[in-house]
Amino acid sequence: MTAEPVLNAARPENERAELLRWMKTELHAEYGDRHLDPRREPMHELISTILSQRTTWQDEAAAYDELCEIGDWDAIIAAPTEAVAHAIRRSNYPESKAPRIQETLRRIRDSPGGYNLEFLRDMPSKDALKWLTDLPGVGVKTASLVLLFNYAHPVFPVDTHVHRITTRVGAIPLMGEQAAHRALLKVLPEDPPFLYELHLNLLRHGQQVCQWSRPKCGVCVLRERCDAFALFGDKVPSFSETKTKGKGTATRKRT
Ligand code: SF4
Q1: Which UniProt keywords apply (predicted)?
Q2: Domains (ranges, CATH) in the chain?
Q3: By the 8 A CB rule, do 11 and 22 touch?
Q4: Which residues of 132-141 are buried (b: 16+ CB within 10 A; e: fewer)?
Q5: Per the CB 3.0–4.6 Å rule, which of 9, 123, 180, 241 could disulfide with 237?
Q6: Nearest CA to ligand 1 atom 4
């Protein structure tokens, strides 16, 4: 007898690892190759990613550009915090991000390499993650992005899209984004090009198909193995609803 699909099932690790490999293959067929090339230099990646939290990429880019109009990193550290907050006002929560960015820059300036983060390349991934996440305003997603994108460390940034899709499909049980980092990393291969491509293709899939509310399951290449689709058909609830109600919501079967 085939077991009923259950949203947020706690699958064995080997099954979750296989499911993620299958997702990567399907998304590759849909969106193609992604070559692991740094998209911007490490300090730019770090500060931009802090600015990107709860912010669209257009606003993030505008905030970064205006921040740089203050001057170099030293000038940003020396500027009044209100001026920094004003420069990054298109990013959400500028008043809390401004002092954190200044303190992060100060600590990096005072580190042995100064603003050159190249030393992170040869550090063990665990230590490099710790070094970055000890900086104010730098969470595990930001640190993972810098380490994977710029230094090809085998880490996996979990943003809202990655979190939502892997939860709906059933690659991880329902949990917060922080915990999802650990859960996914445990079952993903230590293969930076694989991790990079999977991250970028999940991001694209989340923007175009598996959206927060009303995901377009009818055109989704992950549909055949997606727990949420198996349970809810083309009426997959918004992700807020899944997060609020958790396990108990999974009652409807595929029609
Ligand atoms: S089938 Fe629907 S819920 Fe599942 S991954 Fe695709 S779009 Fe998302």
Answers
A1: DNA damage, DNA repair, Endonuclease, Glycosidase, Hydrolase, Iron, Iron-sulfur, Lyase, Metal-binding, Nuclease
A2: 13-34+164-249 (1.10.1670.10), 42-151 (1.10.340.30)
A3: no
A4: beebbbbbbb
A5: 241
A6: 226
